[in-house]
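Lab meeting, item 3. Inverse folding demo.
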């Protein structure tokens, strides 16, 4: 199942939900990534601090696929000066 990811808050929620679906504890994920349980907790609660490398490692561990693509949006608001 695919979900659009628009905010870092959503990223944190997605990572927690994926970890729980896999029935993994923070400690188990941490061990697989060579991190501390405390660091996994911190990243889940502060996803804006996740590096690209950490995100890709978390995705691999949680069997998530990271995709990019163009967002279907309304026309660009030209009042922003872009």
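The presenter then showed the designed sequence:
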């Amino acid at each position: 199942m695919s979900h659009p990811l628009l905010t870092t808050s959503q990223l944190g929620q997605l990572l927690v939900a994926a970890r729980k679906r896999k029935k993994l504890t923070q400690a188990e994920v941490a061990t697989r990534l060579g991190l501390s349980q405390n660091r996994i907790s911190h990243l889940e609660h502060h996803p804006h601090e996740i590096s690209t490398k950490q995100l890709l490692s978390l995705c691999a561990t949680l069997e998530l696929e990271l995709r990019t693509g163009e967002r279907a949006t309304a026309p660009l608001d030209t009042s922003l000066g872009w």
